[in-house]
Amino acid sequence: MKLAMHQILWGWILAGSSLATAANADGLPTVDKLRPDDSSSHAIDRAWLYLDDAKVAEPLGVIATSSIAYTSVGSNPDPTSAPYRAFAFNTAQPGALVSLGGEVGLLPRLSVEALGQMDLGGQSRSASPGAVAGLRLQLSPSSWQTVHVVASGGYLRETWSAPVVDRATGELAPGQPNGDNGVWMQAAVSADFKALRLGLTAHGEHVFASGRDGVDLMIKAGTSYRLTDWFRAGIEWVGQDLEATVNGDAEGGARHFVGPTAALLLLQNRLTVIAGPSLGLSDRSPKILGRLAVAYGF
């Protein structure tokens, strides 16, 4: 009886070893193959130039981001009163501006992001360093493969204070190179239809400074098409200070700009490089903008 039990036990051990060897030979996942440092776990999807991406970083994943932007003076020839609005995420800052930051996944649906900005020599006066920090929450269920929704919000420090209308004279006073503190909230939605992607971002912020609007509203919309595995082409539109279209505005009125984008998706989608020029659509809009952004997943 004891001999029979030993024979059964050794039979099970040998059978299990044979199955494990066969599974590994067939290429089935093993513990080593499922480690989080697999290159596919670092893949990112950041193909917008101005819109917010409606996905968050994976838990403990890191997405490093950097960009450099240039904005020309608009129709007003006096750069000290250039009618630009320094929104949190670097749109229409006079002159050249560089940003560096990133996003870190905290939980399966939650991440934290931070971004610093620095002037590279404005066309009027040097801007002070700015910053953005906040939390990002994935609202759409993980089972949704086509539509993605992310809500985010946090703290901001402007790189340049907006021009403010003097209530006594009605004149637009020039912006200053020392920005103010504020808070922001944002919602981003994207939808993928095979190679075609549509996106929409609504951004609102309040700056704690006298004479400013109660809420500043910015809308961004875009479309992107994946032409190859490594290349996307699209177009993006940005409208800022849109609250001025329905209410009185303290900062000079709405601005709009639009332009094409091109994105390279490299290193098994771990690296994204995207760039494009944009043109202003109104008198108070910046005349020409250009931006280059890079994102890398760790």
Query: Strand portion, in percent?
Result: over 45%
**Fraction in helix:** under 10%
Any idea what the CATH superfamily of the largest domain is called? monomeric porin ompg
Number of domains: 2
Main sheet attributes: strand count, strand direction, barrel closure: 12 strands, antiparallel, barrel
Low-confidence stretches: 1-5, 12-17, 19-37, 75-92
Task: Using the alpha-carbon principal axes, give the shape.
Answer: globular
Gyration radius over CA: 25 Å
- Overall CATH architecture of the largest domain: Beta Barrel
How far is the N terminus from the C terminus?
58 Å
Determine the CATH topology of the largest domain.
Porin
Structural commentary:
The chain is mainly beta and about 300 residues long. The protein folds into 2 domains: about 35 residues; about 250 residues, Porin, CATH 2.40.160.40. The chain is about 10% helix and about 45% strand. The chain contains 1 helix and 14 strands. The strands form 2 sheets. The chain has a 12-stranded antiparallel β-barrel. A hairpin with an 8-residue loop joins strand 9 and strand 10. The longest helix is centred in the first third of the chain and has 24 residues. The protein is globular and about 45 Å long. The protein starts with a helix and ends with a strand. The N terminus is likely disordered.
